[in-house]
Amino acid sequence: MELNRRDFLKGALATGALAATGTALAACSPAGGASGGSDAKATGAEGSSSASGSVLTADNYQDMKWSFEIPPEPVADADIAETYTHDIVIVGAGMAGLCTAVSAAEQGADVIVFSASSKPISRGGSNHAIGSKYQKEKGIDYSPEAAREIVKAEQTAGTYLMDKKKWERWINHSGESIDWTIDHMEKQGLKCCLEPGYTDPDGTITVPPASHNFYTDEQPFGALFGAPLEAHAYANIFTDDFGGEIHYKTVGQYLIRDNDNTGRVSAVVAQREDGSYVKYVANKAVVLATGDFSKNPDMMAKYSPWAWENFKDSLTFGDVDYDAELVYSGLMPGDGQKMGLWVGAAWQKTYPVPPMINGGASGPAHGVISNFWGLNMDIHGERYQNECTNFAYGAISVLQLPQKTAYAVWDKAYAYTQDEWEAFGCCIDYENGIMPSTPEEMIASWDAAATEGKSSIGTGATYYKADTLEELVEQMEGIDKEQALATIKQYSAYAEAGLDEQFHVNPDILYPISTPPFYATKITGATFLTVCGGLRTNDKMQVCEEDDTPIEGLYNTGIMTGDFYANTYNFVMPGQNLGAVCGTLSYLLGRDLAEL
Ligand SMILES: Cc1cc2nc3c(=O)[nH]c(=O)nc-3n(C[C@H](O)[C@H](O)[C@H](O)COP(=O)(O)OP(=O)(O)OC[C@H]3O[C@@H](n4cnc5c(N)ncnc54)[C@H](O)[C@@H]3O)c2cc1C
């Protein structure tokens, strides 16, 4: 039976997914004017019965209905132009959907993929893995045993809210799955390398080289552009080696759940570019792999309010680009999450859904992904933290500051605190060493940035340079200059003494700011990448109802997987998303589906 409004509500009530009452069904869209994208119509449709003006209480707040919770009217059977029937229907041709497709097809499963994108897509390229053959070859000890401490640090950072069973599945199969990926990519002409690890002077968030990049001679920058190569390679393998079909420019609209919306999910209805409708019937499983919901303002406001408040002005809404790759203004509109909700899936348990952000105080970075470890100040010219952290935590600190603005100050001698400086995206080439910058090259890059006023690597920071600290501080717009000068002098005194009495930075990385010329940066805000989570998902990637019962026939994978992260994606295990949920868990899902 196809889904209609009544069925949806029944399902929602039966599962308790919505504490919906007759009144609640007519309740408001709380985002009001903020709605956009594909939800705009639904918001308008329900707007006439808005409960605006009513007061929220602990008893009634869950009765609110958001625009995205309202399913579309089902398409009449007569309007379905074509029907495809396969055992497994995968929705989305990103890394997660395509990895699942290849893994299942390789085991002989009958799989079809359709996607709203016009091609295989992905972005970035860091695939975190534990215990790959590549790491072993290079003598990097990163077995599940060796990873115990960093995993504990990560799970502590997430206050143990995340689903540790999914993590164990990843950790125990990470080596196997990345080796499988490496073998497939090599056959497609892609090479593998490793990004540098991160060495925390305090040891807390140290991680060995574990982010695998895929690259070619034509596109050597695997950390930023390797994932699209990988996605294309998976698509080629799926179609050429296993005869799979991928239908592009086909947008999933809603799921069909049998038995009055309480039974198995048996099909997806989608719309093609020419406006015609197509039905994909799944004998065994529908897999949603439709990405994040950062292009949906209402979902962001509801599920990730801290990120929404911080980034609503830098995200863009309206027309959705289903081919979005390396963009920083929002990716996907949450279609898969909505389709799941409409058939009674519960939302993930962790709240809010963690955003993936980075940035921090801008300056010479250690280990590529560090916050600037030297002096950081706020607009009051005061220090605000122990600076020695990575760029995700650095970004969170900046967002909590007055005017979300941070300054960094260092001197020429800072360039010589390392013999070589890693540049972003450099792979470790064990034959030729990493591709570092010398201290002189670092100074030249600061000089160039100060001349232009902007960082050449696109952090958005404003650069300043002066021969005296007084002149430097004079240039630093918006800072309390007198206090800043005093703070710089105090910081240098701590460094000279080898003891930071204020924030207790590790003395090994405390350097006085005393050798001209002097450099500074100013940065406001942080960089938003995506938001990581969605539907309630168990460790077998089954989508579940409110009481954790799996919905028969419905799976999801990739970044939309619920409860894999908590609090924030923190880059402590960089590339965990491509490596874990898009990689290992999708690979395992493909294997499991083939056995159904
Ligand atoms: C700039 C940037 C760089 C990043 N770099 C990294 C990195 O290096 N490492 C890392 O781990 N993470 C990185 N990320 C996070 C990254 O987004 C994810 O790791 C990963 O790409 C998500 O893959 P996915 O397959 O789950 O979703 P997506 O790649 O978003 O794929 C979703 C697919 O579903 C399709 N789709 C959407 N809606 C529908 C619909 N209604 N019907 C049919 N198809 C639909 C889309 O068109 C797309 O093909 C980065 C993010 C950004 C923004």
Q: What does this 3D model show about the protein?
A:
By secondary structure, the chain is α+β, with helices and mostly antiparallel strands. It folds into two domains: 80-353 and 531-595, 3-Layer(bba) Sandwich (FAD/NAD(P)-binding domain); 360-425 and 436-525, Alpha-Beta Complex (Flavocytochrome C3, Chain A, domain 1). It has 17 helices and 19 strands. The chain has helices at residues 5-15, 22-25, 40-47, 95-106, 133-137, 148-157, 164-187, 222-241, 258-261, 297-303, 305-311, 335-342, 391-399, 439-452, 469-475, 481-497, 576-594, and strands spanning 80-91, 111-114, 127-128, 191-194, 211-215, 245-247, 250-257, 265-272, 277-288, 355-358, 375-377, 405-411, 421-422, 436-437, 462-466, 518-524, 527-531, 542-544, 550-556. The strands form five sheets. Strands 1, 2, 6, 7, 8, 9, 18 and 19 form an eight-stranded mixed β-sheet that branches. Strands 11-12-16-15 form a four-stranded antiparallel β-sheet. A three-stranded antiparallel β-sheet has the order 3-5-4. Helix 4 (95-106) packs parallel to helix 8, helix 4 (95-106) runs parallel beside helix 17 and helix 15 packs across helix 16 (481-497). The two termini are 23 Å apart. Residues 1-51 have low confidence and may be disordered. Bound molecules: flavin-adenine dinucleotide. Flavin-adenine dinucleotide binds at residues 91-97, 115-117, 121-126, 251-252, 289-291, 322, 326, 328, 331-332, 335, 356, 529-530, 558-559, 575-578, 582. InterPro entries: FAD-dep_OxRdtase_2_FAD-bd (IPR003953), FAD-oxidoreductase_2 (IPR050315), FAD/NAD-bd_sf (IPR036188), Succ_DH/fumarate_Rdtase_cat_sf (IPR027477), TAT_signal (IPR006311), TAT_signal_bac_arc (IPR019546). Keywords: FAD, Flavoprotein, Oxidoreductase, Signal. GO terms for molecular function: steroid dehydrogenase activity, acting on the CH-CH group of donors. Residues 1-26 form the signal peptide. Its cofactor is FAD.
